Amino acid sequence: MFESDKAINNITIPYYVKTIKDYAFYYCKKFESIKFLNDNPKSITVGRNVFSVYPLKNIYIPKVAKHQIMNVELL
């Protein structure tokens, strides 16, 4: 999708997105932060190596969802 994009540095994932596919943001050199608008993290399926290679500096999630994160299974 945005794999190897050299310009993207942050993105907001709308509440209606249910799947982020494998390698969606893989090797995006300037990618620093992601903001999720969905307040139910269990409703989003995240593929393999989505944010690999360069570390994210910030991940924003709705305050309502923060208590749910501890129950999300990480692959």
Can you tell me about this structure?
- This protein has strands at 10-13, 19-20, 33-36, 45-46, 58-60.
- A three-stranded parallel beta sheet has the order 1-3-5, with no helix packed on it. A two-stranded parallel sheet has the order 2-4.
- The protein is 0% helix and 20% strand.
- The chain contains no helices and five strands.
- The two termini are 20 Å apart.
- With 75 residues, it is mainly beta.
- 7% of the residues are buried.
Quick structural summary:
The protein is mainly β.
Q: Notable features of this structure?
A:
75 residues, mainly beta, three-stranded parallel beta sheet, two-stranded parallel ribbon, 0% helix, globular
Strand order of the largest sheet: 1-3-5
Helices and strands: which structural class? mainly beta
Q: Nearest-angstrom radius of gyration?
A: 12 Å
Report the sheet with the most strands, covering strand number, pairing sense and barrel closure: 3 strands, parallel
Q: Which bin fits the share of residues in helices?
A: under 10%
What is the strand and helix layout of this fold?
Elements: E1 10-13, E2 19-20, E3 33-36, E4 45-46, E5 58-60
Parallel strand pairs: 1-3, 2-4, 3-5
